[in-house]
Design brief:
Layout lengths: L1 E8 L5 H17 L4 E8 L6 E8 L2 H10 L1 H8 L8 E6 L15
Length: about 110
């Protein structure tokens, strides 16, 4: 199991619009991708313009294919809504209890 962790800061006057794009355009696109398992998006309680999304993938190759084919379009969708470019990091999943994500299964 592999993850992409994306941290982004929306413009303060564009938070609702950013959230709408995430829910209406980005998540549906992710669900269509080969190897996509799940996504968890968190919004900071002290800085509501700051979000962190963790997407879970069957393999690094699946995540890389998404990154190469679709992520440039995602960045275009949010460019005018964010303060700067999203920060992307990748990880291998070591342990998961809630959704058995480490086993490649969503709850």
């Amino acid at each position: 199991m592999f993850t992409r962790v994306v941290e982004v800061r929306a413009k303060k006057d564009k938070i609702a619009q950013f959230t709408n794009v995430l829910n209406e355009k980005i998540i549906p696109l992710l669900r269509e991708q080969a190897g996509f398992v799940d996504i968890v998006t968190m919004i900071s309680t002290s800085e509501p313009e700051r979000s962190l999304s963790i997407s879970f993938w069957q393999s690094e190759a699946d995540a890389q294919a998404y990154n190469e084919r679709h992520y440039p379009h995602i960045r275009e969708l949010i460019t005018d809504l964010t303060e700067s470019s999203p920060r992307v990091q990748t990880y291998n999943v070591d342990t998961s209890t809630t959704h058995r994500i480490g086993q490649g299964k969503a709850a």
